Amino acid sequence: MRHSRKIYFLFFIGILLSCSNNDTIENSDNFLTIQPTILTLNVDAEEVNKYFTVKSDKSLQVNSDNPDWCKPTLSNVSIDNLKIAVSENQSSEERRAVVTVSNGLESKYITIVQAGVQADISVDKSSVLLDLGKREFALEISSNVEIAFELPEWIVEKEGNSWGKGKRRYRFSATDLPDELLSRDGVMIIKLKDHAEAGNFVQVRVFQKAITKIIAHRGFWSIPEYPQNSLASLQRAIDLEIYGSELDVWITQDGVVVLNHDPTINGINVENSTYAALSNVRLSNGEPIPTLENCIEMIKKSEKTKLIIEIKPHSTTANENRVVAAVLNMVNSSGVADKVDYISFSQNVCKALIADSPQNRVAYLNGNLTPEALSTQGYWGLDYAQNVLKSNTGWVQSAHTLGLTTNVWTVNATDDLNYFIQMGVNFITTDYPQNLKNLLSTYQ
Ligand code: MG
C-alpha cells in the first residue's frame, strides 16, 4: 500500500509536468511574443534604433502610425528581428508614434515617446553698430532648433542662409538711412520657429548711424563765377545734393536781411546802412548783394539741401534781437522751417532762437561751452572749430550721448576730413564739398 501511494504521487507529478509542457507558448496554436516586453519606450531627441525579438506561429506584419520619423522593419531572422528606426527630433516638442505588430489574430502595440530638443539659441553679439555708411552685417547663431527672425522694417535678411543644426552665419542688410535721420536703432528678435510660445528668444540691438553729412561753407564757391555767400554758390550746393549750404547774414538799418561774411562790404557797414545804400554793390560774378529772402525762395525748391543760417554777432543786442526776429519771421512764414538750421557765435542770438521755439535747431559756434552746458541750455548741437574738437577729443562722444548734434568747421585737408569722419561727427563744414563727397563715397 505504501509502495502504491508512492507510484500515485510520482504519476501526479508527471501529470503536472506534462500539463506545464503542454501550456508553453511554443506548443500553442496561436502565439505572438515580443522581447523585451516593455512596450512603451521613452527616447531622447537623438536618432536611435530599437531592436526586439518577435516570435509568432504565423507570419507577421508591422507598421507605424508615424512612418515619417518612426520606421519599423522586420528582418525575419530569429534574433533582433524587429528594428524600429527613430529619426532625430529637431523640434522642441515631444512626439509619439505607435508601432503595431500583428500576426493576423493578435496585435501588440509598441508606443514610442520621443522628447523634443532642449531649445537653445545663442548669438555672437548682443548689439551691432552700423556707421560710416555701412549697411551690411552678419550674425553667428548657434541653435539646436529651427529659428525665425522678427526684424525692424528697415533690416532685411539676405538670401543664402539655410537652417542646419549648430552654428550658422546669417547675413542682413539695413536699408539706406533716410536723409532726415542722423541715426536710428531697432531690435532684432531671434526665436524658435513656429514655437514663439516657448518664450526662448534672443534680442540683438542694431544702431545705424548716418555717415558724416556735408555742409558747404558759404555755398559751393571757389571760382569767381561762384563767389562766397552768393545765390550762384547756393544753387551750386543745391545741385550737388548735399545736406546743407551755410551762409552769413546781417540785418540792415531798415530791416532787410542780407548775405555777407564781414560787417562791411565795399567799405559800407551793413548794420548801419539801408538796403538801398547797398544797391550798387556787386559780387565778383555780377550779382547784387543777395537777401535771405532770395535764398529761401531757392531752398523751397530744393529737395535735399538745407540752409544753415549763420546769424552774425551784431554790434548791439537790439540789432541781434531784430535780426533773429526778422529771420524767424521769414523762415516760418515761408514754410521752410524744416529746411533751416541756425548757427551763431553769439550766445544772445542762440538763446533768442531757442527761446522762440525748442523746435528751432540751433548750434553754437564759439567753442567755449561744454556739451553739458549746451545740453542744459537747450541747444540742438555744437558747431566747433576743428582745433577745439582736436583739443577736446571726448566732446563729440559726450555730445552724442547727450543727444546733441556735432559739426566741425572749416575742414579742407584730406587727413583732417578722415579724422573727423572716423570720429563720427554728424556734419563737416568745408570749402570743398565735392572733395568731401568723393571721400565719403570711399567709405561705403
Ligand atoms: Mg559762416
Describe the overall structure.
The protein is of the alpha/beta class. The protein has three domains: 32-114, Immunoglobulins (Immunoglobulin-like, Sandwich); 121-209, Sandwich (Immunoglobulin-like); 213-441, Phosphatidylinositol (PI) phosphodiesterase (TIM Barrel, Alpha-Beta Barrel). It is built from ten helices and 27 strands. The strands form six sheets. An eight-stranded parallel barrel has the order 17-18-22-23-24-25-26-27, surrounded by seven helices. Helix 2 packs parallel to helix 3, helix 4 runs parallel beside helix 5 (347-356) and helix 9 (414-423) crosses helix 10 (433-441). The structure holds magnesium ion. Residues 246, 248, 310 line the site of magnesium ion (MG).
How many individual β-strands? Answer: 27
At the fourth level of CATH, the homologous superfamily of the largest domain is: Phosphatidylinositol (PI) phosphodiesterase
Number of helices: 10
CATH class of the largest domain: Alpha Beta
What coarse outline follows from CA principal-axis ratios? rod-shaped
The parts where pLDDT drops under 50 for at least 5 residues are 1-27
Helix content: 10-25%
For the record, the count of structural domains works out to 3
Ligand kinds: magnesium ion
**First-residue to last-residue Cα separation:** 118 Å
CATH architecture of the largest domain: Alpha-Beta Barrel
| Sheet with the most strands: spatial strand order | 17-18-22-23-24-25-26-27
Please give the largest β-sheet.
8 strands, parallel, barrel
- Overall radius of gyration: 42 Å
* CATH topology annotation of the largest domain: TIM Barrel
Please state the average pLDDT score.
Answer: 90
